[in-house]
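Task card 7
Instruction: Convert sequence to structure tokens.
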Amino acid sequence: MNFTQFIGSNKTGDASWEESPVLFERIHIAKNIIKGIYSNKRTIKAPEYLTDFGLRKTDSPRIFIKEYCKKLDKQMPSVLEVKKELLELDIRDLGDWIDGVVLVLGDYDSSYEVLKERMADVLKEFTVDNLIKMATLCGIENDASTALKLFN
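Output:
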């Protein structure tokens, strides 16, 4: 299962996941990202982990979604399939998708690996907002030289 399939498995009107305001908001943001609707409007329920200039890697989004998947008897997306999906995306969508993957799945590592593989196109195509998010991701992953390249 990839990210799109996982997010799509959360159907509107299914109170099992909609009962959590945090999960509801995060899934709603991810659904919009998949549809190509990008917005920086978020509440505390859906923080932008990739603009946390403290460069802290947090386990909380991963723990949160794992526990909800356990509670709802849902399967987590495969790391390999999520990575494959990110590698195949139009480069102009990649930054927002990585933001969604980190927000919902807490998967910093795969997101960083994809970013590194697609770096040449990232430098050509990304907006300033997404360059900042990706630079922060590199900082979180202890890759200061790439982070500086992206910040510059």
